[in-house]
Design a protein that fits this description.
Trna Endonuclease, Chain: A, domain 1, 2 domains, 6-stranded mixed sheet
C-alpha cells in the first residue's frame, strides 16, 4: 500500500470516527481486504489512546470518573461505564481498569495503589470482583471493546498463531527445512524469529535466513518499534531475513533490503533454493 493511499484511508477513518466506515473504505479501495482495513483502524485507534491516555490517568480525573460511576449506581442506571467512556472518548477497557484500580484502592488497599498483577488478574476473571455490579459493568466494557482488554489479547494471539501455522504449512509444502522459536530457545537464543531456515533461500537476490510472521498491518509506528526491538536483533544473530506482514504494509517502509531485512505481504513465489553441487 502506498503511503498516499494509507493517509487517505486514515483521513476517512478520522472523518467517520467509527468502525462503521470499514465496509465503505473496502468498497472504495477493493484491492484491500476488510482484515487489512480493520488492522489499520485498530492501530490508529491504539495510537490515539496512547496519546490521550495520560490525560485521563491522573488522580483528579480518576476520582471524577469514579464519582460518576458511583452516582450512576446510586441512581440504578445501567451501562454506566460505557456511557462514561463514550463521553470522554476513552477505550471502555482502559476506563474499566481505571475504575477497578480506584475501587480496590478504597476497599482493599487503604488508599494505596493495588498491585498491577492483581488488577490484571481481576480483569481477566471478573467473577473474582467482590462487587457484582462493578463486575458486570467491567465485563460489559471488555466485551464491547474491540481494541483493548484480555479478550482482545486472546483474539490477537489466536490470529497470530493461525498465521504462524500458515507459514509453517507453506514451508512444509515446499520441503524447506526450518526450526521454530521453541527449538531456538533450547539452543540458547533469547531473541528468536518465528522461523529460522536450516538452509537459506533467496528472494530477488536477497538471502533469507529467517522469517518473522506478523498478523497485522505494517504502519510506520509499529514497524519502527519492531525494527528496534526485534528485527535488527534477528539480523545480528542470524543474518539477513524477511518479515511477512500478512495484512499488508506501507510500501515506502521497505527501505532496508540492501541492509538485510525485506518486507512482504505473503510468502514469495519466486524463491531461489540453494543447490549445492555434489562431488
Amino acid at each position: 500500500m502506498k503511503l498516499s493511499v494509507y493517509n487517505t484511508i486514515i483521513e476517512i477513518m478520522h472523518k467517520h470516527n467509527s468502525r462503521d466506515c470499514l465496509p465503505l473504505i473496502v468498497k472504495e479501495f477493493p484491492d484491500f481486504s476488510i482484515s487489512t482495513i480493520g488492522s489499520i483502524y485498530a492501530q490508529d485507534y491504539q495510537k490515539k489512546m496512547r496519546k490521550t491516555h495520560h490525560i485521563h490517568y491522573n488522580p483528579m480525573k480518576m476520582e471524577m470518573y469514579y464519582e460518576q460511576y458511583l452516582e450512576g449506581v446510586q441512581n440504578k442506571e445501567r451501562h454506566i461505564l460505557l456511557k462514561i467512556s463514550n463521553g470522554i472518548e476513552l477505550s471502555p477497557a482502559l476506563l474499566a481498569r481505571m475504575i477497578l484500580e480506584r475501587y480496590l484502592s478504597s476497599t482493599k488497599y487503604g488508599g494505596e495503589n493495588p498491585p498491577r498483577s492483581y488488577v490484571t488478574k481481576l480483569m481477566k476473571d471478573n467473577t473474582l470482583i467482590n462487587d457484582p455490579m462493578l463486575a458486570s459493568e467491567i465485563h460489559e466494557c471488555l466485551v464491547s471493546d474491540d481494541h483493548y482488554g484480555p479478550h482482545v489479547d486472546n483474539i490477537k494471539q489466536s490470529i497470530g498463531h493461525e498465521h504462524e501455522c500458515k507459514l509453517n504449512r507453506i514451508l512444509d509444502s515446499l520441503n524447506l527445512a526450518y526450526i521454530g522459536e521453541d527449538q531456538m530457545r533450547t539452543r540458547g537464543f533469547d531473541k528468536t524469529p518465528d522461523v529460522k531456515l536450516e538452509v537459506p533461500f533467496s528472494v530477488d537476490g536477497h538471502v533469507i535466513n529467517w522469517i518473522e510472521s506478523k498478523a497485522s498491518f505494517g504502519d510506520e509506528y509499529s514497524h519502527r518499534g519492531y525494527l528496534k526491538d526485534q528485527f535488527w536483533s534477528y539480523w545480528n544473530r542470524f543474518g539477513p531475513g524477511m518479515v511477512i506482514y500478512w495484512f499488508g504494509f506501507i510500501e515506502e517502509l521497505d527501505t532496508d533490503r540492501e541492509k538485510g531485512i525485506i518486507l512482504s505481504d505473503k510468502f514469495p513465489e519466486n524463491i531461489v533454493r540453494m543447490n549445492p553441487i555434489m562431488k
